[in-house]
């Protein structure tokens, strides 16, 4: 038994399974060409989705940096709550971006 990607939702499934347990796509009865074409399409869609999410993560990060400069208050030693939110956005954007890049790399390697 080998693990392959579902031609419809791109999640992992057994190559012996007749139906995808994640999306219910019926694999049984499809010829190898159709399966391969659908599989490539699902993979491309998944890569596009991850790329779009990477862009969004980058945007969140940049907004965080912008906020940090915009809400900077040199008169007070304590960061303003806006600065703290900006730092949070930067952290979320950064981590989200890295996670997406790793997922992209893992997908492309296959
Ligand atoms: Zn599926």
UniProtKB/TrEMBL annotation:
Keywords: Membrane, Transmembrane, Transmembrane helix. The chain crosses the membrane at residues 46-69, 81-99. This is Zinc ribbon domain-containing protein. It comes from Aliidiomarina soli. The lineage of its organism: Bacteria, Pseudomonadati, Pseudomonadota, Gammaproteobacteria, Alteromonadales.
